[in-house]
Every structure is written in structure tokens, then in C-alpha cells.
From TrEMBL, chain A:
It comes from the Bacteria. This is Anti-sigma regulatory factor. It comes from Rufibacter tibetensis. Residues 36-136 form the Histidine kinase/HSP90-like ATPase domain. Pfam families: HATPase_c. InterPro entries: HATPase_C_sf, HATPase_dom.
TrEMBL record, chain B:
Residues 2-113 form the STAS domain. SUPFAM superfamilies: SpoIIaa-like. The lineage of its organism: Bacteria, Pseudomonadati, Bacteroidota, Cytophagia, Cytophagales. This is Anti-anti-sigma factor. Coiled coil: none annotated. It holds the Pfam family STAS. It comes from Rufibacter tibetensis.
């Protein structure tokens, strides 16, 4: 996989999210991603960035245009230094939530992207990486 | 503070969301709408989301909350103008917006609300007749 562009955006407050979503849209448009795939990617990102703010106290996002076998895609990394997730398997289940949400955030985001990776360590934080390829595969 | 305007039109309240919402703005709208339903004794709430490019689980929950709260206050809620990409994404996300009435556009949404009120009036008339 080749990284074609890379930038970082800190997320500390809710208003940062609007800017972050707009930037993803620009990147996705740049590689010619369809509107449906763009919407899926941004919705997934919206879920993850909310988790980062709510449970991780904010953090850093990394936005990249990547390419594999000449197919471009957008890779997003969400990194916080919050308390971490006790049971990642449980957190990935539909309907599970420690807060008052619907518990669709993590599993929903996973369904909306092509690649999903989550790493969490108690006391150190959580890092989620997602990729949505241009052709959707 | 930023706010989404709520317009009163006869027995209905109209909301057109023209910006992408962040969580606090959505919560403020929920609160403002319910207060307006009570203050104006509105019978219906129409929310136009045709300019909204993203509905995530939080926003979906707010729409559901508005519908349930309005229902308790005797007002129907209809959400109109959802973009196809948003509908596809919502279902894949796992959110079906159950309990929320939807219509394709503002016109059809108003029609739906009018019918709902019409039904109510008929029911009341019926009740009155049988009472006599």
C-alpha cells in the first residue's frame, strides 16, 4: 500500500468535527469516490470521532489518500489517549453501549467501511483505523 | 449560540436543516422543538433534511426522540427530503428510524400531516355524535 497524501487534524471539541468531515469529503471527491461511498465513509468517521470525543477526551485524526494495486482509497486513523476499551469484542457488538447511545457506533462504522482495525489498551488509549476504497471493494 | 430556526405555519411547525449538525446543535433543536410544540399547541412537526449530507446514529436518535416526544404531546412528526445516499447509509448502519413518519418532499410531508389532522377531527366528530 502506498501513501499518497497525509495530514493530521486534532479533535478537541464538537465544532472540530464539522471541519474534519468537510476535509474527508474533499479527499474522497479528489479520488473520485461515489456519493454513496463518500456518505458511508463520512458517517463511519462521524461515529468514530464522536467516540473519541466522548470516551477518549478528544485526540488526533490522520487523513490519508492511499493506493493499493493502483486503486485509491481514503484511510482514516482515530487516536485518543483515553481510558481504553475493556472488552473490544463486546464493544463491537450491535446494541452494546456503556453510555446512553444506541450502541451502533463501532459495529455500524465497521459495516460502512471496507477495512476496520481497532486497538485498545487500558489506561493508554484507543486507535481505530478505517479504509474505504474508491471502487468499494 | 447557533440555532436552527423553527417556523410556525398554521397548526404545524416547520424546520429546515440547512447545515450539517454537530451534536450540541441537534440537542438544542430537540429541546427548542418540544418547547415550541407546547407553546404553540402545534399538531404536527415537519423536518426537512434535504440539505443534510450525513445522518449518523446520534442524529438518528435525535430524530426518533423528537418524534416520540411530539407524539406524547399529541403532535405528529414527519421527516422529509432524505437523500438516497443517506437512506442507504442509515440502513447499513443499522438504524431504521422506526416510529418516525417520512415523506419524499415537503409537499408530500405536509399532505401527510394534513391527513393526520383530518383523521383526528373526524374521530372527534364521531365521538361527539355518539355522545349525543
Amino acid at each position: 500500500m502506498i501513501v499518497l497524501s497525509k495530514e493530521k487534524l486534532p479533535i478537541q471539541k464538537e465544532q472540530d468535527v464539522v471541519l474534519f468531515r468537510n476535509r474527508i469529503k474533499e479527499l474522497a471527491t479528489k479520488i473520485g469516490m461515489s456519493l454513496v461511498n463518500q456518505t458511508k465513509l463520512i458517517t463511519a468517521a462521524s461515529e468514530l470521532v464522536r467516540n473519541m470525543l466522548r470516551y477518549g477526551g478528544g485526540g488526533i485524526t490522520q487523513l490519508e489518500i492511499v493506493s493499493r494495486n493502483s486503486i485509491p482509497g481514503v484511510r482514516l486513523v482515530f487516536k485518543d489517549e483515553g481510558p481504553g476499551i475493556k472488552d473490544v469484542t463486546l464493544a463491537m457488538k450491535d446494541g452494546y453501549s456503556t453510555g446512553k447511545s444506541l450502541g451502533l457506533g463501532l459495529p455500524g462504522a465497521k459495516r460502512l467501511v471496507n477495512e476496520f482495525d481497532i486497538k485498545s489498551e487500558i489506561g493508554k488509549g484507543t486507535t481505530v483505523t478505517i479504509i474505504r476504497w474508491k471502487n468499494g471493494l | 449560540m447557533e440555532r436552527i430556526p423553527i417556523l410556525k405555519m398554521g397548526p404545524f411547525l416547520l424546520v429546515t436543516i440547512q447545515v450539517d449538525l454537530y451534536d450540541r446543535l441537534a440537542l438544542t433543536l430537540e429541546n427548542d422543538l418540544i418547547n415550541m410544540v407546547s407553546k404553540t399547541e402545534a399538531k404536527g412537526v415537519l423536518i426537512d433534511i434535504s440539505a443534510v449530507s450525513i445522518v449518523d446514529s446520534f442524529m438518528g436518535r435525535i430524530l426518533g426522540n423528537i418524534a416520540s416526544m411530539s407524539k406524547i404531546m399529541d403532535a405528529a412528526t414527519v421527516v422529509v427530503g432524505m437523500q438516497p445516499a443517506v437512506a442507504i447509509t442509515l440502513v447499513e448502519l443499522g438504524l431504521t428510524l422506526s416510529g418516525v413518519h417520512t415523506a419524499l418532499d415537503v409537499e408530500q410531508g405536509m399532505e401527510l400531516l394534513r391527513n393526520k389532522i383530518g383523521q383526528l377531527e373526524q374521530d372527534e366528530e364521531g365521538l361527539y355524535d355518539s355522545f349525543i
